[in-house]
């Protein structure tokens, strides 16, 4: 979306500077700037900053860290070609059932590196599920003892 907006912005600036009727050109410049704001900036304001280790994802929002265990994550998927990834949760963790994040501003150009990082996160989530169910310490104690 950013590339499309820049593609419209550069010719409009050229037209505004080269023609005598610059009022109409300035109008279109403002129009596309507002359109860009509502389509790109407002969408990216909903994105969260995330970090992860071997057991949890840490979501940073308004200076607070939210800890989300891997066992509560359903999947991590690519939501758009601009690099927007979505973490789907089994239940609402106070941030909604879906958490959006963007790994890199240069996603289309460095997609191999970013995709490998997301696959690594997905593998850790899958491993956490198998460890969660196979761990005997998670079973209920026997009532006979």
Keywords:
single chain; 145 residues; three-stranded antiparallel sheet; 23% strand; elongated
Helix content percent band: 40-55%
What class would the helix/strand composition place it in? Answer: alpha+beta
Order of helices and strands: HHEEEEEEH
Tally of individual helices: 3
Task: Compute the separation of the termini in Å.
Answer: 64 Å
Shape: elongated
Oligomer: single chain
Which regions are unreliable across 5 or more consecutive residues at pLDDT < 50?
A: none
Q: Kindly state the mean pLDDT as a whole number?
A: 77
Largest sheet, order of strands side by side?
1-2-3
Structure summary, number of beta strands:
6
Please describe the biggest sheet, giving its number of strands, its sense, and whether it closes into a barrel.
3 strands, antiparallel
Strand content: 15-25%
Based on CA atoms alone, the radius of gyration comes out at 22 Å
């Amino acid at each position: 979306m950013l590339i499309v907006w820049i593609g419209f912005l550069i010719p409009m600036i050229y037209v505004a500077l080269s023609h005598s009727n610059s009022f109409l050109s300035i109008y279109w410049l403002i129009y596309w700037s507002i359109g860009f704001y509502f389509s790109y900036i407002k969408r990216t304001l909903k994105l969260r900053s995330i970090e992860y280790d071997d057991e949890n994802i840490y979501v940073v929002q308004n200076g607070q860290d939210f800890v989300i265990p891997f066992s509560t994550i359903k999947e991590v998927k690519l939501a758009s070609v601009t690099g927007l990834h979505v973490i789907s949760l089994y239940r609402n963790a106070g941030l909604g059932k879906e958490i959006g994040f963007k790994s890199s501003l240069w996603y289309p150009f460095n997609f191999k590196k970013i995709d490998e990082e997301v696959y690594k996160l997905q593998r850790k989530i899958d491993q956490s599920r198998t460890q969660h169910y196979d761990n005997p310490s998670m079973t209920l104690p026997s009532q006979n003892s």
